[in-house]
Design brief:
The structure is a single chain. This protein is of the alpha/beta class and 260 residues long. It folds into two domains: 2-92 and 206-258, Rossmann fold (3-Layer(aba) Sandwich); 96-203, 3-Layer(aba) Sandwich (Rossmann fold). Helices cover 48% and strands 18% of the residues. The chain is built from eleven helices and ten strands. The protein has helices spanning 13-22, 44-59, 71-84, 96-106, 116-120, 122-131, 143-150, 156-167, 189-195, 206-219, 242-258; strands spanning 2-7, 28-32, 63-68, 89-90, 109-114, 137-141, 175-180, 201-203, 230-234, 237-238. The chain has a six-stranded mixed beta sheet with strand order 4-3-1-2-9-10, with helices on both faces. A four-stranded parallel beta sheet has the order 6-5-7-8, sandwiched between helices. The longest helix is centred in the last third of the chain and has 17 residues, at 242-258. It starts with a strand and ends with a helix.
């Protein structure tokens, strides 16, 4: 049985990459809903429809767990999915809690970079309201990073000017922690890091999600049995084209390089 990872595009590879490091003896299915990417700028009900359709397809693939490796999809549809399916369903959300803990120690603020839809959702606002006692969390939507990632465009000469323009209203010295609150954004961690002071932490939620996946599979006695193979799908169609497969593996190689 495989572990399925779902995202609107390639962003979910950042979560899959973490899972592969701690669960190497699994087989994986990665589903990118490229027919409908990006999610972050679309109406909520439309996104929920796409997520439910994708989950229905994945549920038929004999999977033992589903990781919704998309912050926007998690915020909109995770509770609905858990009511429908009996296998474990894990989501990902902006790592606001550890960010606040780290920044409070530094007496600094937190900046959450995410999609517009994630930052508007009640799930995100409830999360922040519960733990942001001193009103230190700011948010900034960066839809352009999703577009660049989907184009496999990680070139600093194009990424950094976009980031500088979007961050212009902010005093970057105020922030002790930056949260990469969209799974596409860790691809640009090096560019984000260059714009903030050296002591600013740049974090995301992928490690926590991967660790939670391992814990759940261990509790269910379902760890192992695979070889680390990955089957890729784009909106319910298996990817067999060598060029497209090459892009996915190049993206995973980039994550290897960024995490050394």
């Amino acid at each position: 049985m495989k572990i399925a990872f779902f995202d609107s595009g390639i962003g979910g590879l950042t979560v899959l990459h973490q899972a592969m490091k701690i669960l190497p003896n699994e087989d994986y299915l990665f589903y990118a809903d490229t027919a409908h990417v990006p999610y972050g700028e679309k109406p909520k009900e439309m996104v929920k429809k796409y997520v439910l359709e994708a989950a229905d397809f994945l549920a038929a693939q004999d999977i033992k767990a589903l990781v919704v490796a998309c912050n926007t999809a998690t915020s909109i549809a995770i509770e609905d999915l858990r009511k429908i399916y009996s296998f474990p369903i894990l989501g990902i959300e902006p790592a606001v809690k550890p960010a606040i803990q780290q920044s409070e120690k530094k007496r600094k603020k937190v900046l959450v970079l995410a999609t517009r839809l994630t930052l508007k959702e009640e799930k995100y606002h409830h999360l922040v309201e519960c733990i942001d006692k001193y009103d230190i969390v700011d948010g900034l939507p960066l839809p352009g990073l999703v577009t660049l990632a989907e184009q496999y465009n990680f070139h600093e000469d194009q990424v950094v000017p976009y980031l500088k323009e979007q961050l212009m209203p902010f005093d970057l010295n105020q922030y002790g922690t930056v949260v990469l609150g969209c799974t596409h954004f860790p691809f640009f961690k090096d560019s984000v890091k260059k714009l903030f002071p050296d002591e600013t932490d740049i974090i995301d939620g992928s490690i926590g999600t991967a660790n939670n996946l391992k814990r759940i599979l261990r509790e269910r006695g379902q760890i192992g049995g695979g070889t680390g193979a990955i089957t890729f799908y784009q909106s319910s169609v298996e990817v067999k084209d060598p060029e497209t497969l090459g892009h996915y593996h190049e993206a995973l190689d980039r994550l290897d390089a960024l995490n050394k």
